């Protein structure tokens, strides 16, 4: 075998003695055409709907969802297939996308998402990966058909005109506002934002000290006992906790808060008269002697009576930070990146703490924030609202 390879190499490495330079040039040119034609033909085959749906994970999931959207059937009779939305048209970006897709082919071969259940479990990861890719490239695939310069804004609804004109002025990426236009949106649930998870990881080895103040990075369970067996409530992110004792992997903390003197008093708030939630207690615990009432005060604005209370409980020694500014920095970046894609977001101190929840609930459905992030961002907005604009931040 080695001898044959050596003979072949000696043959092709020798200068041509009987074939003219012109013949070699023509043959090389034709060979190049054949190779280039074959290469491009193979590329186009991988762009067909038949190829994309040959994998049953794609055929039985995203492809079925596409068929219920405007991109599949519409008054213009123009249908978008998989490659129209997931492969750029210009050659350089197309090649880069094909190289990325090679990993997807490998995943299909090894069965990463070969069942409906596996696909649904991975949907959020897959969606975020595609959103990030299209956000970075300015939604090149969408621009294959949609271009701001070709849009007749006068034919849009007044609401659409306002948003699209602003987007055109910023040359905004389409995917920023149009997630879920061709496939179902993933269930955000309680899956953590990778940046929030990184913040948790950075505080994994925090050294706890008595009398220091700590803050939950995400919602944290509150327990009655150091064995952490009797759950009595949930502490919301960024709630100030005063550490009083450490035992094994549990921390005893005290909480100073306010609650409305109405009903069972299960919801605790950061400040008097402001609906900035700190914790939600179990009914029995909220009505027990474990809650020390320090003061009572009437809210002149609403006429409601409030109680200033203090309580102690136990939490797991995890998911806490001693630097609340790290939480605010994350929430601020998230607010700016999520709430500026469709319109100019309001200044944080433009509204008061009690107005922000209603406004936020109306906007958050257009973002991809999970529940933990939503809770933290809302608390950031309320804690930096007009009520605190001229006060020291906390």
Map the helices and strands.
Blueprint: H1 2-13, H2 21-45, H3 49-52, H4 56-59, H5 62-66, H6 82-86, H7 91-110, H8 116-136, H9 140-143, H10 158-170, H11 194-202, E1 213-216, E2 220-223, E3 231-235, E4 241-247, E5 250-260, E6 267-271, E7 274-281, H12 283-286, E8 292-298, E9 305-316, E10 320-321, H13 324-338, H14 356-363, H15 371-383
Antiparallel strand pairs: 1-4, 1-10, 2-3, 3-7, 4-5, 5-9, 6-7, 8-9
Helix pairs in contact: 13-15
Structure summarized in a few sentences:
It contains 15 helices and 10 strands. It is α+β, with helices and mostly antiparallel strands.
Mean pLDDT: 84
Number of helices: 15
- How big a fraction of the residues is strand? 15-25%
Query: How far apart are the first and last residues' alpha carbons, in Å?
Result: 77 Å
- Care to count the β-strands? 10
Quick one: biggest sheet? Answer: 6 strands, antiparallel
Shape: elongated
What strand line-up does the widest sheet have? 8-9-5-4-1-10
Residues in helices, as a percent range? 40-55%
Order of helices and strands: HHHHHHHHHHHEEEEEEEHEEEHHH
- Give the low-pLDDT segments: none
Rg, rounded, reads 30 Å
Label the structural class.
Answer: alpha+beta
Question: Can you tag this structure with a few keywords?
Answer:
394 residues; alpha+beta; 6-stranded antiparallel sheet; 4-stranded antiparallel sheet; 15 helices; 10 strands
């Amino acid at each position: 075998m080695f001898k044959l390879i050596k003979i072949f190499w000696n043959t092709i490495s020798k200068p041509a003695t009987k074939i003219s330079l012109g013949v070699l040039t023509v043959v090389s040119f034709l060979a190049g055409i054949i190779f280039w034609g074959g290469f491009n033909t193979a590329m186009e085959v991988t762009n067909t709907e038949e190829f994309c749906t040959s994998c049953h994970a794609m055929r039985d999931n995203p492809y079925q969802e596409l068929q219920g959207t405007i991109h599949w059937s519409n008054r213009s009779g123009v249908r978008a297939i998989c490659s129209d939305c997931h492969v750029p048209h210009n050659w350089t970006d197309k090649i880069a996308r094909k190289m990325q897709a090679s990993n997807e082919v490998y995943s299909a071969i090894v069965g990463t998402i070969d069942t409906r259940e596996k696909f649904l479990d991975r949907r959020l990861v897959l969606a975020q990966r595609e959103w990030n890719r299209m956000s970075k490239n300015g939604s090149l695939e969408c621009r294959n058909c949609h271009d701001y310069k070709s849009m007749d804004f006068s034919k849009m609804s007044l609401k659409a005109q306002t948003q699209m004109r602003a987007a055109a002025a910023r040359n905004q990426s389409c995917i920023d506002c149009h997630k879920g236009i061709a496939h179902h949106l993933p269930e955000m649930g309680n899956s953590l934002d990778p940046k929030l998870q990184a913040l948790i990881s950075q505080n994994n080895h925090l050294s706890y000290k008595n009398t220091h103040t700590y803050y939950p990075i995400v919602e944290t369970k509150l327990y009655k006992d150091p064995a952490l067996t009797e759950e009595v409530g949930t502490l919301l992110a960024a709630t100030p906790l005063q550490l009083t004792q450490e035992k094994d992997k549990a921390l005893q903390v005290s909480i100073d808060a306010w609650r409305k003197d109405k009903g069972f008093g299960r919801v605790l708030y950061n400040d008097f008269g402001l609906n900035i939630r700190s914790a939600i207690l179990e009914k029995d615990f909220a009505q027990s002697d474990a809650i020390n009432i320090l003061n009572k005060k009437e809210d002149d604005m609403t006429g409601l009576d409030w109680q200033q209370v203090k309580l102690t409980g136990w939490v797991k020694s995890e998911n806490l930070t001693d630097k609340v500014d790290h939480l605010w920095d994350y929430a601020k970046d998230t607010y700016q990146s999520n709430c500026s894609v469709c319109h100019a977001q309001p200044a944080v101190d433009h509204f008061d703490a009690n107005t922000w929840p209603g406004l936020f609930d109306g906007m958050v459905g257009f973002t991809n924030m999970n529940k933990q992030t939503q809770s933290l961002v809302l608390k950031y907005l309320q804690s930096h609202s007009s009520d605190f604009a001229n006060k020291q931040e906390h």
